[in-house]
């Protein structure tokens, strides 16, 4: 049943839980490729891809076909891990085939936050320790445990008490390495800090972090929920730095547009969740067969096309075109780009103007002065040129 526009808007604000006092409120009717279309017929070039979800574009034909095929077979049949379901098996096998040998066992979840929760439990179970090190201005999800990892007191404070035993240190700092000890179960780090406004680690620091974890027996958990699946110009961001985590977190693009997360580790580690207690981690809908079918098709498309290889060139084009006295900095790691302005108010004005002009963008959780660019990897040079033209015109508006 299709509602009229005013009725849908009224019911949205009345019955859908709100996450901010002023949501964007765009009523989307359709999405295709790199474009969104609202109910009035207006077109938006999508520069954020559902927050790094739509890496292969919205509604890629192969993904849609895979969903339809799976709908004709079965939907939910049993909690995760009990029945052999072909989409799960095929997707886990394909992921393992394109990961380092030690990342060979996949636990599918419903979201990236749930993947972080599972990884915390796995690290505690494997090591018998409780201490966790995380980083300021880091984001791993908003559930209670993941919130405890979040590196910003503004977001944490209203929900205390949180999990004990978590230390927050400066990303990229030598001091952070010193707190990792024989009491540390794991270290959680984003391979590239996204919500801080795109900050990549010093490669040598990340290697030292890897070494310190190995020396102390702590597990290194790398969060690639935003930067996985080609976002940085390689399939997995950690391969840019010649570092392999003990546990890898995936989400966002993992489901090809459907909800899915995963934590991935060696089978010897993952086996600790099967005994004492049995069902050490369990989920009803994690690894849903339709989500797995969509994600599998999306990854297959990504591996077959040349979009990942083009990311660096497209990144450079954005950087070359986004030049203006009002732009304080442009930080990027592939097609994850932060355009920094003088204040959050200035950034909001520019974001709002971009949306009015038909380019959808937003800001970063810990860097509201920065405009976010994370489009589908399918974006063309012509579309990049249009997007940058709109951003520059929005900057110039009084």
Structure described in brief:
This protein is α/β, with parallel strands linked by helices and 398 residues long.
Task: Describe the 3D structure.
By secondary structure, this protein is an alpha/beta fold. It contains 14 helices and 15 strands. The strands form 3 sheets. A 7-stranded mixed beta sheet has the order 4-10-9-8-7-5-6, sandwiched between helices. A 4-stranded mixed beta sheet has the order 1-2-3-13. The protein has a 4-stranded antiparallel beta sheet with strand order 11-12-15-14, with helices on one face. A hairpin with a 2-residue loop joins strand 1 (28-32) and strand 2. Helix 3 runs antiparallel to helix 11 (289-304), helix 4 packs parallel to helix 11 (289-304) and helix 13 packs across helix 14 (381-396).
Structural class: alpha/beta
Fraction in helix:
25-40%
Largest sheet: 7 strands, mixed
* Radius of gyration, whole Å: 21 Å
Strand content: 15-25%
Spatial strand arrangement across the major sheet: 4-10-9-8-7-5-6
SSE run: HEEEHHHEHEHHEHEHEEEHHHEEHEEEH
Give the strand tally: 15
Query: What separation lies between the terminal Cα atoms?
Result: 42 Å
**Backbone shape:** globular
Q: In terms of per-residue confidence, which ranges show pLDDT below 50 for 5 or more consecutive residues?
A: none
| Residue-averaged pLDDT | 95
Counted by DSSP, the helix tally is: 14
Oligomer: single chain
């Amino acid at each position: 049943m299709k509602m009229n526009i005013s009725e849908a808007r009224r019911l949205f604000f009345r019955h859908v839980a709100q996450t901010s006092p002023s949501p964007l409120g765009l009523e989307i009717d359709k999405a295709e490729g790199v474009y969104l279309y609202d109910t009035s017929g207006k077109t938006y070039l999508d520069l954020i891809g559902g927050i790094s979800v739509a890496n292969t574009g919205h509604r890629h034909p192969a993904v849609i076909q895979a969903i339809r095929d799976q709908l004709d077979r079965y939907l939910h049949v049993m909690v995760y891990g009990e029945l052999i379901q072909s989409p799960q098996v095929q997707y886990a096998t394909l992921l393992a085939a394109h990961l380092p040998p030690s990342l060979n066992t996949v636990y599918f979840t419903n979201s990236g936050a749930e993947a972080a929760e599972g990884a915390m439990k796995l690290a505690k179970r494997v090591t018998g320790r409780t201490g966790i090190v995380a980083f300021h201005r880091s984001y791993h999800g908003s559930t209670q445990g993941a919130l405890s990892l979040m590196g910003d007191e503004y977001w944490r404070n209203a929900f205390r008490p949180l999990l004990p035993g978590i230390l927050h240190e400066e990303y990229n700092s030598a001091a952070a390495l010193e707190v990792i000890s024989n009491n540390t179960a794991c270290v959680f780090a984003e391979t590239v800090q996204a919500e801080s406004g795109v900050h990549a680690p010093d490669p040598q620091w990340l290697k030292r972090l890897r070494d310190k974890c190995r020396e102390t027996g702590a597990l290194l958990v790398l969060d690639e929920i935003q930067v996985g699946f080609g976002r940085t110009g390689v399939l997995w961001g950690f391969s840019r730095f010649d570092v392999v985590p003990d546990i890898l977190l995936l989400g966002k693009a993992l489901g090809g547009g459907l909800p899915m997360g995963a934590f991935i580790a060696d089978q010897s580690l993952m086996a600790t969740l099967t005994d004492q207690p049995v069902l050490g981690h369990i989920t009803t809908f994690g690894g849903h067969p339709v989500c797995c079918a969509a994600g599998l098709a999306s990854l297959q498309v990504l591996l077959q096309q040349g979009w990942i290889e083009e990311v660096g060139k497209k990144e450079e084009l954005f950087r070359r075109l986004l030049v203006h006295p009002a732009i304080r900095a442009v930080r990027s790691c592939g097609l994850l780009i932060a355009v920094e302005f003088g204040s959050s108010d200035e950034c909001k004005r520019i974001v709002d103007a971009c949306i009015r002009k038909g380019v959808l963008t937003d800001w970063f959780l810990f860097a509201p002065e920065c405009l976010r660019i994370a489009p589908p990897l399918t974006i063309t040079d012509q579309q990049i040129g249009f997007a940058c033209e709109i951003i520059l015109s929005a900057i110039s508006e009084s």
